[in-house]
Amino acid sequence: MKLDALERGRRATITSVDWDAIAPDEGKRLRALGLDEGARTAIAHRGVFGGRDPIAVMVGRMTIAIRRVHAAAMVVEPA
């Protein structure tokens, strides 16, 4: 299942990331924030307009806003 399809509030672990689908500088930023294989995450909120961007993702004690296209590049396994 892709991270962008995860239900709000449900915990999951990132099992893989399609780094080729993400620009190199954006991928570097996501890795620095802890969004990489093995990270435990959950969807906190979704945007309300159009494409429902951005998506607020919890990683540890942080909440990070990411684009839906970035979430779609991440495969997760629900907990």
UniProtKB/TrEMBL annotation:
Pfam families: FeoA (PF04023). It comes from the Bacteria. InterPro entries: Fe-transptr_FeoA-like, FeoA_core_dom, Transcriptional_repressor_C. The keyword Ribonucleoprotein does not apply. GO terms for molecular function: transition metal ion binding. Keywords: Iron. Residues 1-78 form the Ferrous iron transporter FeoA-like domain. The keyword Transferase does not apply. This is Ferrous iron transport protein A. The lineage of its organism: Bacteria, Pseudomonadati, Pseudomonadota, Alphaproteobacteria, Sphingomonadales.
